[in-house]
């Protein structure tokens, strides 16, 4: 259950990271509200997952999911560059997330 909560927390982190772009510096009320709600929910779920999982593992996976998701959506939504080096490092992050899960003992 902790891993499910952690993945959901990571997906919500992607949501708020992308949401920051849509808030336009927190000047747009609805995107700002949705972004703040995503932040609170993401942190709350991370906290619940960290009750069971080691904090180093939980935090690294949470950040990794957020970083990979934000980078992928940055390409898809905002036309950010997708270079071979960027793909390589995103793949390495995914491998690291899988490795942390595989070696966590939970």
Sum this structure up briefly.
With 106 residues, the protein is mainly α. 81% of the residues lie in helices and 0% in strands.
- Main β-sheet, in a few words? none
Provide the residue-averaged pLDDT. 96
State which percent range the strand residues make up: under 5%
In whole angstroms, the N-to-C terminal distance is: 10 Å
How many alpha or pi helices? 4
Overall number of strands: 0
* Oligomer designation: single chain
Low-confidence stretches at least 5 residues in length (pLDDT < 50)?
none
What is the string of helix and strand elements?
A: HHHH
Briefly note the structural class of the backbone.
mainly alpha
Global outline: flat
Radius of gyration: 15 Å
Helix content: over 70%
Quickly count the domains: 1
What does this protein look like?
- With 106 residues, the protein is an all-alpha fold.
- It has one domain (2-102).
- 81% of the residues lie in helices and 0% in strands.
- It is built from four helices and no strands.
- The chain has helices at 2-23, 29-49, 55-78, 84-102.
- Helix 1 packs antiparallel against helix 2.
- The longest helix has 24 residues, at 55-78.
- It is flat.
- The termini are close together.
Please name the defining characteristics of this protein.
single chain, mainly alpha, 0% strand, flat
SSE map:
Elements: H1 2-23, H2 29-49, H3 55-78, H4 84-102
């Amino acid at each position: 259950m902790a891993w499910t909560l952690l993945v959901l927390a990571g997906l919500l982190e992607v949501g708020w990271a992308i949401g920051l772009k849509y808030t336009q510096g927190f000047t747009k009320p609805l995107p700002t509200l949705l972004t703040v709600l995503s932040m609170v929910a993401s942190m709350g779920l991370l906290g619940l997952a960290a009750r069971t999982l080691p904090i180093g593992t939980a935090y690294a996976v949470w950040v990794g999911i957020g970083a990979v998701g934000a980078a992928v959506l940055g390409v898809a939504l905002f036309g950010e560059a997708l270079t071979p080096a960027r793909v390589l490092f995103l793949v390495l992050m995914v491998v690291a997330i899988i490795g942390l899960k595989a070696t966590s003992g939970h």
